[in-house]
Specification:
Helix 1 runs antiparallel to helix 5 and helix 2 runs antiparallel to helix 3. This protein has 208 residues and is mainly α. The protein is 78% helix and 0% strand.
Amino acid sequence: MEAGAQKENGKKMKKFLLILLASTVSFVAICFAVFYSYKSFVLEKLRQKDNHIKEVWSSLYKESLERTLVIENLINISNCDRSSIDSTIVKNKSNRDPNKVEELWNLEYTTNKAYIQLGKCFEGKSNTKIKTDSLKLNAEKLNRIVDEYNANVLDFNKYYSIFPNFMFGSQEGFRRKKFFYLKYGEDNEEYYKQKKKTDKWIETGKWE
C-alpha cells in the first residue's frame, strides 16, 4: 500500500514537472514572439522615418543645386567683382555629394556667404532683378525644406535613442542623423562660430 502511494506521488510529480516544463517553454516562446514582433515594429518605423528624411533631403539637395546655378548665371550677367565667388561656385558644383550632409553644409554656407557679400552689387540693376527675385523665393522655399528636414531628423534621433531601439537600429545599419542648420539668404555667422567651437570641443575636449 505504501509502495502504491509512492508510485502515485511519482506520477503526480512527473505530471507537475511536465506541466511546468510546458509552461516554461510556452512562456519563453511568447517572450521571443513579443521580442521579435516589437523589433520588427521598431525597424519598420525607423525605415519609414529614414525614407521620409531621404525624400526631404533629396528636395533640399536639388533646390540648393538649382540655387547655385542661378547664382552662377547671375554673376555671369552682372558687372560685379566675381573673384570672391567664382572659385566658391566651382567648388560647390564639383564637390557636392548627396550622401555627405556635413560637407554639403560647408559648401552651402560658403556659397551663401559669398552671395550675401555681393548682394549690394546686384541692387537696382534691371538686368539682374528677375534672378535676384527668383533667388529670394528659392531661399524661402529652401528654408522651409531645411526646417522640415531638421524636424524629421529630430524625430528620428529621438525615436532611435530610445532603449532598445538603438540596439535594433544599429544592427541594421541605422545611425543618428546630422542636422542641417542653415538659413539661405541670411547671415549664418553666429551659428558658424558656435559650430566651430562644438567641432573643436568634440575633437579636443576643450571648449574655447
